[in-house]
Amino acid sequence: MTKAKKQQNLIIISGPSGVGKSTICEQVVEKLGAFLSVSSTTRTQSETERQGREYNFLPRAEFEEMIQNNDFLEHAEVFGNYYGTPKEPVDEALAAGRIVILEIDVQGALQVKKIRPQTRTIFILPPRSRDLRDRIDGRGRGENEKTKKWRLETAGREIAAAWQHYDHMVINDDLSQAVQEVIDIINGKLKGQI
Ligand code: ADP
Ligand code: 5GP
User: Fold this and answer.
1) 22, 35, 83, 182: which could join 93 in a potential S-S bond, CB 3.0 to 4.6 Å?
2) Domain count within the chain
3) What pTM did the predictor assign?
4) Where are the alpha helices (DSSP H) in 77-144?
5) How far apart are the C-alpha atoms of 167 and 119, rounded to whole Å?
6) Which CATH number goes with the domain that contains 56?
7) Is residue 96 domain-resident?
8) 5: confidence class by pLDDT, cuts 50, 70, 90
9) What is the residue-averaged pLDDT of the chain?
């Protein structure tokens, strides 16, 4: 496989908080045997999360050191915290010919697309905007009202940017249908927008 072909195996999945990205990614990864990148973040770990599983939770100073060392493929500040994709594991998996999935925000997606234009971007939409609120509550992370409101307010801006910049839009109404659409996109069976 050529290097350019391998770069097409890099898939970005984004979407507003609570839309179902983690749920979809988990199933896609299981069905395709893909590699899911574990991001680093400075945000507080919730009780349902485990160090190294959802994220590498790091103190700010350590994250900033990784930025200085050029250890990230991309990084961004989201909801007042740093989030970033460690470069080395992604490149190792791509070199091994695997499909690699990054679950990152729009800012990060645009950074990656700029330096690796073969990357394919998928944005997950909610069927109705009020579903986001219910799903954010449903995650049970114990977040305060202010954080939840911030996440909802950001959703509209992200969705507008995504229509402009993303290769594919997928509505997560029926979960198994959304998972199948993402798999079809990755396998090259669905080429256009939704
Ligand atoms: P995200 O990673 O985008 O923040 P999650 O994957 O954590 O979102 O999903 C948020 C909540 O919504 C979870 O409780 C999840 O079980 C639920 N959820 C995911 N997809 C659907 C769907 N298609 N219909 C209803 N609930 C869903
Ligand atoms: P959460 O705190 O809900 O887990 O994630 C908040 C937002 O950060 C989500 O939009 C998620 O996709 C994004 N995110 C997670 N990891 C990364 C990353 O490594 N880089 C960037 N740019 N965004 C990320």
Assistant:
1) 35
2) 1
3) 0.94
4) 87-95, 106-115, 129-138
5) 9
6) 3.40.50.300
7) yes
8) confident
9) 93
